Amino acid sequence: MNKLSTLIGDKEIKLVIAGNPAEMKQIDKYLHSSENILTSEEIQVYKEKKLGDYDIFSVLGTSLVIEEIHHGDLVFGKKLNPEEKTQIKSEDVVIFHINHESERYKDLPNIPDFKLRKFRTFISLENDNEVIIAQIIPIMSELQQPHIKEIFIRKLDEAKKVLKNESLLLLSVNYLNKDIDFSFHCLSELYAKIEYVAKIKEDNENFIIQNITSIDENKEENLKKALQYLANRKINQYFCSTKESFRKEALLNIFTHAQKKIRGAFNQLSDITNDKELMHQLYTFLKKGGEVNFIVYNNTEWTLDRFIASYTLTEEEKARISIKQTPQGGQFARNDNGIRNGITFCIGDENMYVLRPNINASFVECNFNNREFYNMIGSIFDQQMQILPNIRL
Predict the structure, then answer these.
(1) Which stretches within the chain are classed as H helix?
(2) What is the mean pLDDT of the chain?
(3) Quick check: 4 and 209 in contact, CB under 8 A?
């Protein structure tokens, strides 16, 4: 084992908040010292990366778990010069200075000087709200969701008042327990771009770096790990994405971590049956005593008998799976700020959900420990399971 100081020298390790600083009621103001952090021989290969040229931060909070950045991790950020600040790209994870004199933070004297955010795009305040939204939607399709658009406009209007003397703002996001969170920043507040993340393990009086990874590597694998982490620990945190891989991984985690009952409404049963991983995990759930209730809107190739025949199920296991079909054109729907859209969803037990709030869009949201969606639709779903016919061709 070697000391981290052999890689970075005697450099201060700062604190950075991953979350809303105003909601951090108590901050554990521990500081790692590079003298009591040990690294393995394998980590020494990063000496070539000149990690001593980076600012190093210890992460407080969980709002960027989706980027595989956890509370207690170390992040290595490259301080940006004025030209580099204008060259950051959407999806970059960056660090902003916290303005302690602002109205938002002036009564919070104990918060650190930095916050960790996911950058999305630049915004010109010379444009009105609808023009700004039209420009952003190609890279942030979640703004097509009425309730998210409403949050964005509210935050944008606040920013226009507070930062009225700025012509160019940076838009960043992170994820809280119920929804996406938007923030707007002036260019001078941007401090660094994160390039490496180090995982720390505590060992007696020392901390050991288990591995260091580039934040730009293995994005899909990081997404899998992040969703597994949230589901395994039943963390109340909202996430959303337009990636089909996101929906699949969220469903897999519901099938894996649900204990008693899985409810789902799908456009077609083949949304599940065409994926071997999803089907295997559903089969495993049935084998361990779970109950499965599905409602399907359209069906062209599956019957309940064929679904059951695909696996070796006992009579008792067969009795715990029920698949119903809506009349032609029938769908669950949600009224989102006056706009009615058909939805598909899956609920694990009563607190995990995956929701596509517009059946015709790729946007998906999920949470692995929040009852609000179940409370809204659970009883209606159960009523429909009682009256709808079994799936048929």
Answers:
(1) 5-8, 82-85, 129-136, 146-162, 219-232, 244-257, 270-273, 276-287, 304-309, 315-318, 372-387
(2) 85
(3) yes
What does each C-alpha distance from 348 to 191, 250, 362, 366, 378 come to in angstroms?
A: 41, 11, 21, 11, 11
pLDDT over threshold 90, residue 331: yes
SS (H, E, C) 113-140: CEEEEEEEEEEECCCCHHHHHHHHCCCC
Q: Which two tokens stand for residue 332?
A: 């669950």
pLDDT in tens, 378-393: 999 999 999 998 876 4
In the numeric block, which tokens belong to residue 338?
């006056």
Residue 48: predicted pLDDT: 55
User: Is the pLDDT reported for residue 27 higher than 50?
Assistant: no
Through-space distance between the first and last CA atoms of the chain, rounded to whole angstroms: 64
CA distances from residue 99 to 15, 81, 109, 114, 214 in whole angstroms, order as listed:
15, 19, 11, 9, 29
pLDDT per residue as tens digits for the range 153-204: 999 999 988 888 888 899 998 877 667 889 999 999 999 999 999 888 877 7
pTM > 0.85: yes or no = no
Question: Judging by DSSP bridges, how do beta strands 321-325 and 291-298 pair with one another?
Answer: parallel
- Burial tier of 332 (Cβ tally within 10 Å: 0-12, 13-18, 19+): middle
What whole-number distance in Å separates Cα of residue 140 and Cα of residue 137? 5
The token pair at 82 is 């004025």
Model confidence over 339-364: pLDDT tens digits? 788 999 999 999 999 999 999 888 89
Largest Cα span, the chain:
70
Neighbours of 262 (CB within 10 A): 23
User: Which tokens sit at 269?
Assistant: 């049963």
Give the amino acid at 71: H
Print the SS3 string covering 228-241: HHHHHCCCCCCEEE
Token pair, residue 98, equals 């916290």
Q: What is the rounded distance in angstroms from the CA atom of residue 337 to the CA atom of residue 93?
A: 31
Measuring CA to CA, which residue among 6, 72, 13, 8 is closest to residue 41?
6
3-state SS assignment for residue 353: strand
User: Is the Cα dihedral 179, 185, 189, 195 positive or negative?
Assistant: positive
Residue 43 banded pLDDT, cuts 50, 70, 90? low
